[in-house]
């Protein structure tokens, strides 16, 4: 196969931008803006898992137990849900929010999705733990989410530090990470994200 054919095959694959950051860093809000600004399809790994949990499937109770304890669901389950969602819209570009969250996720993605999608990079929302905790506790008043309580949030942050940051470092070493200061209000972050996206 010639180099041209290989690049044509790659160019027809779905494009993926991973969106990572601590719990409460504002990933979901900014993904909604990116959908409007740049015509992405937004896939939230957490939302897909929560939907599967509520579907009554065999994986549902196991997913619920992991989410309640702030743990990361097995890569095989998450990647399968992501692949199914991507296949509904072939040849499009996707924001995948909250994934890959650990090395198992990363290896699962590489094993299952190499040749099926192209990773264009990682958008990393960088925000201190205390800022994020206060945001989530505010959100908890209306969210109804089982993991929106301080104990679960702190557990999720420990998981994030130990398991997600190495994934971000992995992509930094490949020069594929675009870092966003996620401390300001949502409007200011939106402006900064747009600038970063337009520069790349």
Write up what this structure looks like.
- By secondary structure, this protein is of the alpha/beta class.
- The protein has one domain (3-194): P-loop containing nucleotide triphosphate hydrolases (Rossmann fold, 3-Layer(aba) Sandwich).
- The chain has helices at residues 3-11, 27-38, 45-54, 60-68, 75-87, 103-113, 129-143, 150-173, 186-199; strands spanning 15-21, 41-44, 93-97, 118-126, 177-181.
- Strands 2-3-1-4-5 form a 5-stranded parallel sheet, with helices on both faces.
- Helix 2 crosses helix 9 (186-199).
- The model is unreliable at 1-7 (pLDDT under 50).
Termini gap? 30 Å
Strand percentage lies at 15-25%
- Provide the number of structural domains: 1
- CATH architecture annotation: 3-Layer(aba) Sandwich
Count of beta strands = 5
Q: What is the molecular shape? A: globular
Structural class: alpha/beta
Q: List unreliable stretches of 5+ residues.
A: 1-7
- CATH topology call: Rossmann fold
Strand arrangement in the largest pleated sheet = 2-3-1-4-5
Helical region count? 9
| Biggest sheet statistics | 5 strands, parallel
Keywords:
disordered N terminus; five-stranded parallel β-sheet; Rossmann fold; 200 residues; alpha/beta
Helix/strand layout:
Blueprint: H1 3-11, E1 15-21, H2 27-38, E2 41-44, H3 45-54, H4 60-68, H5 75-87, E3 93-97, H6 103-113, E4 118-126, H7 129-143, H8 150-173, E5 177-181, H9 186-199
Parallel strand pairs: 1-3, 1-4, 2-3, 4-5
Helix pairs in contact: 2-9, 3-4, 3-5, 5-6, 7-8
Quick synopsis:
The chain has 9 helices and 5 strands. The protein is of the alpha/beta class and 200 residues long. Strands 2-3-1-4-5 form a 5-stranded parallel beta sheet, sandwiched between helices.
């Amino acid at each position: 196969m010639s180099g041209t054919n290989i690049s044509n095959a790659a160019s027809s694959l779905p494009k993926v931008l991973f969106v990572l950051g601590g719990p409460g860093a504002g990933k979901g809000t900014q993904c909604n803006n990116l959908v409007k600004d740049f015509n992405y399809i937004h896939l939230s790994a957490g939302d897909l898992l929560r939907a599967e949990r509520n579907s009554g499937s065999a994986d549902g109770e196991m997913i619920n137990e992991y989410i309640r304890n702030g743990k990361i669901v097995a890569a095989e389950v998450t990647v399968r849900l992501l692949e199914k969602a991507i296949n509904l819209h072939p040849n499009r570009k996707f924001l995948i929010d909250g994934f890959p969250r650990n090395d198992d996720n990363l290896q699962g993605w590489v094993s299952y999705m190499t040749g099926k999608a192209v990773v264009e990079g990682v958008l990393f929302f960088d925000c201190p733990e205390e800022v994020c905790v206060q945001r989530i506790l505010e959100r908890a008043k209306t969210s109804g989410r089982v993991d929106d309580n301080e104990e679960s949030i702190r557990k999720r942050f420990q998981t994030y530090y130990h398991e997600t940051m190495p994934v971000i470092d992995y992509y930094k070493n490949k020069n594929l990470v675009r870092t966003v200061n996620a401390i300001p209000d949502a409007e200011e972050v939106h402006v900064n994200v747009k600038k970063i996206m337009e520069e790349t």
